[in-house]
Write a structure and sequence with these properties.
CATH superfamily: TolB, C-terminal domain
Largest sheet: 5 strands, antiparallel
Distance between the termini: 82 Å
Strand content: 35-45%
CATH class: Mainly Beta
CATH topology: Neuraminidase
Oligomer: single chain
Helix content: under 10%
Number of domains: 1
Radius of gyration: 23 Å
Shape: globular
Length: 396
């Protein structure tokens, strides 16, 4: 009797155990909503007093313990979703009590391949990894029971550089996906999807290339007045501190070429690929930015909290230069536009993440909240900041 029971146990349990192992190790999109931090954020651990902004503006920590925070997306119910690069995670950050501070930081997916890009549309969370974009349906209601994602587009190159992606839905309802150049400086004949901005339908169909000659962009937004696409572009690192410049570009329509790798900025012709090239064939930038500041986030301000002079203008977050270049960036800039919606200049809006040549934080993405405040992700400090305006607050 004991032997028969033991045999039954082996016959039933062992196959179930082996099946469980197969599910764990072979499922390529296993997600684990395991990590939750319900501690309210604190400003005490970061030198926020070093951040300088115009009078009336203040900055605080909206959510802490958001390791490697990159792109942000907000759902209609107020849940903030945050992608990462090296951490391989996607976070959900709810604020159910609407007090302007995160209630918790929940890891809803882990073990992904640089899921830097997130976007939210019609109840679904879209997550961009290096090789694919996936969709998690009914995400807001399933933070503790994460649905199995559906891959809507795949086959992007698994390259060593510029492979992580920040994604955005445009006014046309299509998902725009930047595909960075596979090397720091290389021509890509026969590989038209490299160094481009693609777009697809919400279900992954009808993919096409919207813009070409874009070395690497991680920040996209649309002018609320004209509906034109604007984006930031990181220039290549093959030269020295003096160039080439990073860029702020505008693409009013599909089919434009922005010069990479033949020309950078307004008139820098590349010595390797630019010989004999007519630069008039390419679209120049709306604005040249300093070399190596690494602009990553861009948002048109469409809120009501900040003074009227900011409405319809552009905020750009500069992630900051890499070694061995002289430290530059690590700040947020304001780009001013004319009535004809052309860039007229830029100035520093917030800086102080760089102190004595060393950065304690690196701003990445920007997001305007329904109340008009602005969130800023920081992948070095591992936090989400909230910038607010109150005319009674002093500047510094």
């Amino acid at each position: 009797m004991r032997r028969n029971n033991r045999q039954k146990f082996i016959i039933i349990i062992v196959p179930l155990f082996l099946l469980a192992l197969l599910v764990v190790f072979l499922h390529p999109y296993a997600t684990t909503p395991v990590s939750k931090n319900s501690t309210k954020p604190s400003n005490a651990d970061l030198p926020l007093d070093k951040i300088r902004m115009p009078a009336g503006f203040s900055i605080s920590v909206y959510a802490s313990n958001v390791s490697d925070a990159r792109e942000m997306a907000l759902s209609p119910n107020g849940t903030l979703y945050v992608g990462t690069r090296y951490a391989g995670k996607v976070y959900a950050i709810p604020d159910a009590d609407k007090d302007g501070n995160a209630d918790a930081v929940i890891t809803i997916a882990s073990g992904l391949h640089m899921p830097a890009g997130v976007e939210f549309r019609n109840g679904s969370l879209y997550v961009a990894e290096v090789e694919r974009v996936s969709k998690y349906d009914d995400m807001d209601s399933r933070l503790n029971n994460v649905p199995t994602p559906e891959v809507i587009v795949s086959g992007f190159p698994n390259t060593s550089q510029h492979a992580w992606k920040h994604i955005r839905f445009g006014p046309d309802g299509r998902l725009y996906i930047p595909v960075g150049a596979s090397e720091d400086l290389i021509d890509t004949p026969g590989q038209p999807w490299l160094a481009s901005i693609m777009r697809i339908n919400q279900d992954g169909s009808s993919e096409d290339i919207y813009a070409r000659g874009v070395r690497n962009t991680l920040g996209l937004d649309w002018d609320p007045v004209t509906g034109y696409l604007w984006f930031v572009e990181n220039g290549h690192n093959s030269l020295n501190d003096s160039g080439p410049p990073d860029e702020l570009d505008s693409a009013p329509h599909a089919g434009m070429h922005f010069g990479y790798p033949y020309v950078c900025g307004n008139n820098y012709t590349d010595p390797l690929y630019g010989q004999g090239i007519n630069i008039s064939n390419f679209t120049p930038p709306e604005l040249e930015l300093e070399p190596h500041v690494a602009p990553l986030g861009i948002r048109f301000y469409n809120g009501d909290m900040f003074p009227a002079e900011y409405r319809g203008q552009i905020f750009v977050s500069e992630h900051g230069s890499m070694e061995p270049f002289t430290p530059v960036g690590y700040r947020i800039e304001l780009v001013t536009l004319s009535e004809s919606r052309k860039a007229t200049g830029h100035r520093v809006f917030a800086d102080g993440w760089l102190q004595n040549g060393k950065a304690w934080g690196r701003p990445v993405d920007l997001l305007v909240m329904p109340d008009g405040s602005m969130l800023v992700s920081d992948d070095k400090a591992g936090v989400i900041y909230r910038i607010m305006y109150n005319p009674s607050v002093g500047g510094g």
